[in-house]
Amino acid sequence: MPALSRLALVPVPLGNDGTEFAASHLGKALTIKGRLETIGVVHIYGTVNGQITADRLVIGAGSFVEGDIIANDVRIGGRFTGRIYARHVTLDGTADITGRIFHHTVTVAKGARIDGRMPWRPLNFFERLEHLREAQ
Amino acid sequence: MNMFARNDKSFDANAASTTPARDKTEAPVPPLAEPKRTPPPAPQTYEAATPQTRVASVISKALKITGQLESTEDIQVDGEVDGDVRGVSVKIGSNAKVKGTVYGDTVELAGTIEGKIEAKKVILTSTAHMAGDVVHQDIRIESGAYIDGHCRPEFGKAATKSAHAAAKPVATASAGSVRDKPGSVAEIGTRV
Prior knowledge:
The complex is a heterodimer. Chain A is mainly β. Chain A has helices at residues 2-6, 123-135, and strands at residues 24-26, 31-37, 41-44, 47-49, 52-59, 64-66, 69-76, 79-91, 96-108, 113-115. Chain A has one domain.
């Protein structure tokens, strides 16, 4: 799958002082054009245009995200266009999704709008994504 | 009638055989006909819906962004940004690194910037590492701050041009150092 190499996760250089990282919070007024990479938690309430790599990602209601997502756990309550690669996906009732959702488990709340396919993948599919992260 | 009687009997027999077992285990299960009316679970709230910090946006230490950030609110950067940052009040934390131009009304630098600062008010704290020019109106440099670049008090004078990082060759040649605004410089960093 050639797309995966493009989506390969790259480690974030970190200080060795902290085991726990505060969640990143991207407020309503913030617009990002580009790539986001973290091994921690990201909460997005604004606009992001680009690839997002995170352990846990929350896209709040009222936000707009366009691009690919690679994460362990994704929760979406906003508008999203692109592909999601995540072990666990939760779509809130306010979610508006266009694109594919590669998942192992998925939860969809009543009211969510999904335009696209939701292919199931075994857990090792997502491990492969992480191997790529470690390899680089 | 016969049929009903038989059914009743068999039902009783079943009930009799199952009840002791039930008593041992748990409370009887409510019949299917009237399911327990539980209110729908309250929707889970996002943990960070009301962040503890007062800053509108926080780029935490573990986050690396390659690209542009634009906000009409405050931004706190503790991670790594490879690109431009635009905000109202921009704080670059002590372990943060920005490669690019930082625009804002107020820019407070405690980390590293490789690029440029364009802000009305610039504060370089003691841990600041600034590799590049600073375009400001008002600047404070604390002892220990590192600057490798020009400090030009030109913010707002060419607002439209500088906002897009347009080069101003005439101005750059002459406008030299922090001495341009001696009154506001409390302490000059080690290397200017």
